[in-house]
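In line with agreed milestones, work has continued on tokenised descriptions of protein folds. One protein thus recorded appears below exactly as we store it:

>
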Amino acid sequence: MTPDTKVPSPCIDVCRMDDATGWCDGCLRTIDEIANWSSFDDDQKHAVWQAIDERHAQLMTARTAPRADAS
């Protein structure tokens, strides 16, 4: 990304909040991150993207981890 390139929104039009995580099922942002996106500067937007990457990794780890009740 070049310095004059706009930071893209992570929104994929799947807008549904997960009560367990507090993240949108589509973009993995919090409600505050969604509500404030347009007022964030580029550094804040990049920080949100970093948080999304970390959340995605958490979800993938949770989905692939063996369940304790599996037989």
